[in-house]
Design a protein that fits this description.
Chain A is mainly alpha-helical. Chain A is built from 14 helices and no strands. Chain B contains 10 helices and 10 strands. The N and C termini of chain B lie far apart (50 Å). The chains are: A mainly alpha, B alpha/beta.
């Protein structure tokens, strides 16, 4: 665009006399001529080259340029300020995610320890009870007014919306799923048994989040999980919703959740709930 | 001649709107039943517009609606000629908006440069323009020497300036600043007014404040707002001439402010 503007329109280049006069700082070059040459030079690389060739013959100019370059050199050679690492991390993860991930991983480790302790005789493994719900904490941190101090700012940037939310959610899963995979292997919980409910809850949180806000959606689902799965498991040592024959149900929830997210993908550009 | 702004493309794009901000009958409800902006008709173009009004007048709600945080509940709001009701334009609109909320939240562990860089990324500046744009924004608010310090080590006034830097990093055509001078010391406030004047030459700047002297010093236009309604729009001089010497206030502007507000509010004198 800019190149087209500079070269396309600029069929008229300043004459050799003008450029030479400009390089020499001639007094007979009137102010408006000098200004016009300067304006042209800013846009025309060809004429800048002509100027450079002519200026090289003028000692006063070369001396001045050398001084300027010497003055600038220390700054130019210095290490460019590059906040690379944190920036790259922030592109993938919500900036507030760190403590939440640490907490969730800590809980997972405790769950594994509980299940591996010999005198812990529960029929439903703790890992199975907790692993599906734990990504909710990370999802909440990814997009909620309550947990993200800069939410008001980030929520109205052009990048706000489903792609950013998905990116942050996938980061949560990319960290947590391997942890839970290891936890499952250590405690003998089959992969599908925790993975399907886990993905189903995450997808539902995002789908519901498009309606009532992601933070609220995770709180609601966390409460539901506690009431429907955790409470019966603790009180009765049973987890009917986590029986293998329920897995198709979880797969259906996952599919519905993903469908709702895709159908309502525009809903994520407004911060929080639409009232 | 400054021709190297990152948003240089928009200079050449044809304008299809008369005002950057154009509200017709704009109503914004907060919570379930509080109408904070009530049938507002307002057009704002290039310049620095001071949004004045008592606490609770609805200034913050209006600014949040302009920033597309809040959705209009009635009437319409057009930014750059596009209605904000049409969400498919939000992304495009938001690239051209700069916003400093009243409560500026930030990440304490980020340095100034990291934070402004992150905001520049969220605002979808091209990657190669980001370092330059960040440096320029940080210099504009006078924080170049603290650019690599963490935000938690900065004073309140400096944090406020970081907020201004992130707002201007994308060279916005509409810049929305909610109480930007809170926490600035007198010298910083003077510098900030100069920056406001500079920004207002090329873009539409809306500054909400309750400090009448900020408006007098930096704004080309005053928008006086009370209980969700527009009370007055005009130049600072016109505001000053609305006042009479018997009105309360220490300056002509303050007297004009009091006069117009007491006209709009029959139950005057109440806090």
């Amino acid at each position: 665009m800019r190149a087209a503007r500079s070269e396309g329109r600029g069929t008229e280049h300043p004459s050799g006399r003008l450029v030479r006069g400009y390089a020499h700082g001639d007094a007979d070059l009137s102010a408006d001529e000098a200004w016009a040459v300067e304006a042209h030079l800013e846009r025309c690389p060809g004429c800048r080259r002509r100027l450079a060739a002519l200026a090289a013959e003028v000692p006063a100019v070369t001396a001045l340029l050398a001084t300027v370059r010497a003055g600038l050199e220390p700054d130019l050679d210095g290490p460019a300020p590059a906040p690379r690492r944190r920036r790259r991390a922030a592109i993938w993860a919500a900036p507030v995610l760190g403590p939440w991930l640490a907490m969730v991983i800590g809980v997972s480790v405790v769950a594994v320890l509980l299940d591996r302790t010999a005198d812990w005789t529960r029929t439903v493994p703790t890992v199975l009870l907790l692993a599906p719900a734990l990504p909710l904490a990370g999802v909440a941190a990814a997009w909620s007014r309550g947990l993200d101090p800069a939410f008001e700012l980030t929520a109205v940037t052009p990048r706000a919306g489903l792609p950013l939310l998905l990116r942050r959610t996938l980061t949560v899963l990319a960290v947590l799923l391997p942890v839970h995979l290891a936890a499952g292997l250590l405690t003998g919980v089959a992969l599908a048994h925790w993975l399907l409910p886990s993905l189903a809850l995450t997808a539902t949180a995002l789908a519901l989040g498009g309606v009532i806000g992601v933070g609220r959606a995770t709180a609601v689902l966390g409460a539901l999980w506690t009431a429907a799965v955790l409470a019966p498991a603790v009180a009765l040592d049973r987890a009917p919703l986590l029986q293998p024959e329920r897995l198709p149900g979880w797969a259906a929830v996952l599919a519905v959740g993903v469908g709702v997210i895709l159908a309502r993908r525009r809903a994520y550009t407004t911060p929080g709930a639409p009232r | 001649m400054r021709t190297t702004t990152p948003s240089g493309m928009s200079d050449t794009a044809p304008r299809t709107y008369a005002h950057e901000i154009h509200a017709t009958g704009l109503t914004v409800r907060v919570g379930r039943d509080r109408v904070a902006v009530d049938g507002l008709d307002l057009s704002l173009g290039t310049g620095t517009h001071g949004l004045l009004g008592p606490n609770g007048a609805g200034k913050t709600t209006l600014i949040r609606a302009l920033a597309t945080v809040l959705h209009p509940t009635g009437g319409d709001l057009e930014l750059f000629g596009h209605s904000v009701r049409d969400r498919s334009h939000h992304r495009e609109l938001r690239r051209r908006i700069g916003y400093l909320p009243q409560e500026f939240g930030y990440y304490k562990r980020f340095t100034v440069r990291e934070f402004v860089t992150y905001m520049a990324w969220l605002k979808e500046l091209p990657d190669r323009d980001i370092p330059g744009a960040v440096q320029r924004a940080v210099e504009r608010v006078g924080l170049a020497d603290r650019a690599d310090d963490r935000l938690k080590s900065l004073s309140g006034g400096m944090v406020r300036r970081v907020g201004i830097a992130q707002a201007v990093v994308n060279d916005p055509a509409v810049l929305l600043l909610d109480e930007p001078t809170v926490g600035l010391d007198p010298a910083q406030r003077l510098q900030f007014r100069a920056l406001l004047q500079e920004l207002g030459r090329e873009s539409c700047v809306v500054v909400s404040t309750h400090l009448v002297e900020d408006v007098a010093a930096a704004c080309t236009d005053v928008v006086l707002f009370d209980r969700g309604r527009l009370v007055f729009q005009g130049t600072p001089d016109a505001l000053a001439s609305a006042g009479t010497p018997d009105q309360p206030g220490d300056s002509p502007l303050e007297r004009g402010y009091s006069a117009l507000l007491s006209n709009s509010d029959q139950g005057k004198g109440s806090w």
